[in-house]
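pls design
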């Protein structure tokens, strides 16, 4: 019936899985795929921090306005505070990104200098 084709399909699936695993293992921490993933992670972190801060501030303001029956004073105030907190978080995340990139550049420069036989501090030969 359809059982005689099943082993061929499983062998084909096994071959594709092995090829995918081998391709994934070739991707090291310095591969373009890993770099792209890190960039996407940073972008998601920044977006989520901004959205959460604004939503949290707006939610607190809305709850206070509902509780105190003062619409929309606290909503506006806490929305602006949430936006400020979100911008602060984005600034801190961007500073962390810059520091990570700076540290990576320094490591690359140091390893290149040691490969060239030069002293990176003095610019001359060792």
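designed seq:
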């Amino acid at each position: 019936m359809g059982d005689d084709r099943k082993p061929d399909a499983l062998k084909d699936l096994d071959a594709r899985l092995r090829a995918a695993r081998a391709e994934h293992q070739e991707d090291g921490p310095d591969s373009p795929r890993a770099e792209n993933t890190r960039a996407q992670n940073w972008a998601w972190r920044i977006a989520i921090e901004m959205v959460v801060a604004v939503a949290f501030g707006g939610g607190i303001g809305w709850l206070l306005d509902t509780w105190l029956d003062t619409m929309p004073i606290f909503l506006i105030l806490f929305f602006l505070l949430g936006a400020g907190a979100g911008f602060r978080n984005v600034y801190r995340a961007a500073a962390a990104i810059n520091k990570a990139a700076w540290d990576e550049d320094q490591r690359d420069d140091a390893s290149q200098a040691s490969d060239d036989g030069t002293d990176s501090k003095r610019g001359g030969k060792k």
